[in-house]
Amino acid sequence: MMNAKDLRERSSEDLATLKASIQKDLFSYRMKNWTDQLEDTSLLTKTRRDLARIETILRERENQPKGAES
How far apart are CA 49 and CA 55, in angstroms? Predict the structure, then answer.
């Protein structure tokens, strides 16, 4: 599980790369769950929440005014 604080310290490019990686992992977890090969089904929820955190941070950065870097 990733902290929002830790994610905010990363660059937008790094977050986009991480997002793509997590989406692949989530797909893999779904397939394993569907075929009853996933041992820890809580990974599905945890991964979806991590993905949502990343998407939220990226969207916040998109909507910021151009000079307001925080």
Answer: 10
Second CATH level (architecture) for the domain 4-61: Orthogonal Bundle (1.10)
Per-residue pLDDT, 70 = 55
Q: Which residues contact 15 (CB under 8 A, 6 or more apart)?
A: 7, 54, 57, 58
What does pTM read for this prediction? 0.85
User: Alpha-carbon distance 15 to 55, whole Å?
Assistant: 9
Phi, psi angle pair for 19, to nearest 5°: -60, -45
Which two structure tokens, joined as six digits, stand for 60? 């916040």
Average pLDDT for runs of 10 along the chain of length 70: 90 96 97 96 96 96 76
